[in-house]
Amino acid sequence: MIKLNSFFKSFGSRKILRGIDLEINSGEIVTLVGNNGSGKTTLLRSISTLDFPDSYILAEVDGFDLEKYPEEVRSRIGYLAHNPPFYPELTGVENLKLWLELNSIDDAESRARDFLGQIGLVSFSDDLSGNYSRGMIQRLGFAMALSHSPTTLLLDEPFTGLDSEGIEIISKLLQRAKMNDCSILIVTHDEVTYADRVVELFRGEIK
Amino acid sequence: MNPIIVLIKKELKVELRSLQGIVASSMLSFMILMSFKFSIVTNSLLTSSGILWSSILLTGLGLITHISTREVERGTLDLLKLSSISRYQLFLGRMLGSLALLWVLSSVIFIIYIIIFENQFSNDLFLAYFVVLVGCIGISAVGTLAASTATPLHGGWMITSLFAIPILLFTVIEAAIRCTDSLISGSSDFELAFMLLVLYNSVFIFGGAWLSEISE
User: Fold this and answer.
1) Of B40, B60, B123, B165, which has fewest CB within 10 angstroms of its CB?
2) Cβ contact (<8 Å) for A87 and B14?
3) Is the dihedral of CA A132, A133, A139, A141 positive or negative?
């Protein structure tokens, strides 16, 4: 569950987020839309603790304050960046295993292979991720976001570069995550038919 | 598995598969040592270990900056920051990963130095090598902390050295030079200088971990 109240973020003198009020319940999928530069990615990065807000009255993930308990918050969040970062010298399974080990997940290798199977990358598991196509990187990023069983998913343009099969796989996994009470915030320009509601961000404010 | 060990293994695997940083730094250190060899004629400079430490300091910081810049440019630093490990663990993992590579580099530099400038440590060769490995700990700690601060900035690759060299020069490097010089001259300063070196290393490791933790 995500709760934000009067959430502000700026870079230098430029105000990016201007008093965001947002609540996403468990098992809810919310689509966040808005023009370029409206602050969508900044909002996701701030919730994931990659950036810290200037001020807020309330900013919690599952009841954990973003600034007071950043490690607790991070352990509950699955974040898919617009360009998912990976080590090109490592294989797909090594990248995912690294992520799982950093999150203290037991039996990381078999879990990584299992997730790569679920997102349709099993036959490329042992290929270097530097040789992956854009769509394969996106799938790997999605596996990373889901693999440590987060309660909150923050997805920045998750369908970029995916073929129709990839979109279908990810849509099914998202709906399964929703059934498992995961709170999901998706930044996208595409229509997500299974989303519960759409929120529009305009110049750092929710309309 | 302990996340610090995970980070060390990752750093070694990434670098040993690409060899970008190690090979470039080794070549640079060879050129620096050769430059000293042909440009310095004063006997006292050639019979002290300042040249060895200059080479380790400059190329070592270059290697650490390369590792850190690569993480930032690829966005993989965000990936590490997104995991649920604490910031001090992230610092120690990155620092020890860089240290492992720095030990490889300093071993190469030490061998080249011995070949070019002849073995001035005579029977204390292995003790001198041990001092080099211990000295690298402080360089790695300060370098990692400076790189974390500087690499997100424009020209961060240069700023890292500008931050780190003044801190290291009058602490770790001075103590390390006193150690290795005492091995060359046979003076009794070694114990005191080595204790200082260990003290500086400890301060920088704990200071770096603490600063990383409170920076969040």
Assistant:
1) B123
2) yes
3) positive
Please give the model's pTM, rounded to 2 decimal places. 0.91
Contact A77 B82 (CB under 8 A): yes
- Among residues A31, A157, A32, A148, the alpha carbon closest in space to that of A83 is found at A157
Q: What is the mean pLDDT of residues B139-159?
A: 87
Distance (Å, rounded) from C-alpha A184 to C-alpha A164? Answer: 21
- R_g of chain B computed on alpha carbons: 17
For residue B173, the distance in angstroms to the closest alpha carbon of chain A comes to 33
Contact predicate B156/B142, CB 8 Å: no
CA geometry: angle A43, A46, A52, nearest 5 deg: 140
Across residues B181-191, what is the average pLDDT?
89
Give Cβ neighbours of residue A175 (< 8 Å, ≥ 6 apart).
A194
Nearest to A139 by CA among A86, A176, A177: A86
- ipTM, two decimals, is 0.90
Note the pLDDT of residue B157: 75
- Enter the DSSP assignment of A36: T
Please answer yes or no on whether B84 and A98 come within 8 Å at the CB atom. no
A183-187 vs A205-206, strand pairing mode: unpaired
Contact in structure between A59 and A24 (CB atoms under 8 Å): no
Per the listing, tokens 């930032």 go with B72
Chain B CA closest to residue A89? B14
Residue A194 CA neighbour count, 13 Å, CB half: 15
Residue A186 has what pLDDT? 95
In whole angstroms, how far apart are CA B204 and each of A119, A185, B164, B197? 44, 41, 11, 11
pLDDT, tens digit, 9 for 90 and up, residues A42-56: 999 999 999 989 999
